[in-house]
């Protein structure tokens, strides 16, 4: 089926969410930051993904004053909506779980397109944030893309504090998407940006 890939034997078994293969393995993101490993995601990771999403929004939602039960229900619904969006719009993306000491601590959803690597999502659990792990993952994706002359792109919320990190790593805004900016880091001397849709053409 279009957009599906098989998982190699040394990776975790493949699973399906919403009818689309997740955790495909054309090539595992390498290298994983020291002390961690990537593995292909499976349907067994659904609860972790929901909790991970909630951890990225819980502080923001706490300001709503809603009862805890309503907040939890809303976050669960939003996590499912996010996943459905990714499956619909990035059905060729690879879903990876980052593990540390055998426990899941993050997620990377990566689409390897002809002219660029699109980071669909990158997220870490609270206890794994702030110690350079996210920067190391980004550096690995950038290095892989640069090695084959590709750009790296990602949608970032304008109010996201990580915006500073992306700019420090050489990303620039190429399109204003309202709440989000489409940011891109070009491989020097190898790519140009189509301002109309943010796609990259190799020169």
TrEMBL record:
Residues 36-189 form the N-acetyltransferase domain. This is N-acetyltransferase GCN5. GO terms for molecular function: acyltransferase activity, transferring groups other than amino-acyl groups. It comes from the Bacteria. Coiled coil: none annotated. InterPro entries: Acyl_CoA_acyltransferase (IPR016181), Bact_Acetyltransf (IPR050832), GNAT_dom (IPR000182). Keywords: Acyltransferase, Transferase.
């Amino acid at each position: 089926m279009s957009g599906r890939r098989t998982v190699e034997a040394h990776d975790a078994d493949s699973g399906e969410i919403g009818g689309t293969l997740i955790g495909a393995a054309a090539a595992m993101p390498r290298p994983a930051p020291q002390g961690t490993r990537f593995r292909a995601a499976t349907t067994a990771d659904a609860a972790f993904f929901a909790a991970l999403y909630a951890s990225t929004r819980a502080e923001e939602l706490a300001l709503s004053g809603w009862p805890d039960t309503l907040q939890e229900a809303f976050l669960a619904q939003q996590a499912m909506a996010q996943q459905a969006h990714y499956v619909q719009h990035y059905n060729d993306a690879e879903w990876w779980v980052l593990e540390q000491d055998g426990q899941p601590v993050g997620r990377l959803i990566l689409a390897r397109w002809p002219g660029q690597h699109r980071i669909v999502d990158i997220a870490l659990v609270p206890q794994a944030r702030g110690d350079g792990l996210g920067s190391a993952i980004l550096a690995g994706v950038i290095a892989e893309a640069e090695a084959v002359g590709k750009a790296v792109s990602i949608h970032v919320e304008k109010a996201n504090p990580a915006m500073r990190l992306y700019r420090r790593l050489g990303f620039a805004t190429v399109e204003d998407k309202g709440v989000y900016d489409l940011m891109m880091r070009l491989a020097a001397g190898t790519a140009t940006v189509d301002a109309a849709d943010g796609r990259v053409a190799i020169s």
